[in-house]
What does this fold into?
Amino acid sequence: MRISTAPAPFWLGMRLFVPVAISIAAYGVVWGVLAGQAGMSVIEVALMSGLVYAGASQFVVLEMWTPGQLPIVSIVVAAAIVNLRMLLMTATLRPLAGHLPLPRALAVMFLVSDEPWALTMGEVRKGRGSLAFLLGAGVLCWTSWMVSTLFGRVLGAVIDDPTRYGLDFAFTATFLALLLGMWKGRGDLVPWIAGALIAMVTARLVEGNWYIIAGGLGGSFAGAVFDHFAGRREARDVR
It folds into this structure.
């Protein structure tokens, strides 16, 4: 009997995710430092990273974090807008998880984020993607994010002057990097510009952090309208 020496899918997913986990850890340390500066305790950092587990929305929340008077509704709405893409991402994984009972499927989907999803879909296109592979990548991603954000929070407590290390620009730099990473073509300019303009106008007219929600909703709507008319134009050209 021939014994296969190939790694199990779970360990394969974890092993292939190691380079990505290193970059996530660097990103997580920055968030942890900024979280400490925003007034979050170590316990709050652990709970947010472990339960929310969404880097982009966690950076958004930092801008809205005011200890003692948290704008709960604004935070929940903003995080939901940022994470709407997860609905589409998890829907593409139905062929892998559709056979599971709903509670187990939801537990697996909790570990889905941009990087494990992209790696898993790449394996699916090669004909060898599996739920175990997704779990391996997802577990390492979650662990990397948890450990690095906590490390950053502790590290931030010993930094007396964040501007000395350029950490005051870390939030802006991180979002610029995320934005460039999401660039797919000139069509992205419409929702980006619309969202930015709406956010700036809202920030001037409305007190608080509602500009984040307004910009997210406005940019999403502008993108949907643009895609609709672009699709109709392509359909006419085909005819």
Summary: Residues 9-37 form the longest helix (29 residues). The two ends are 59 Å apart (CA to CA).
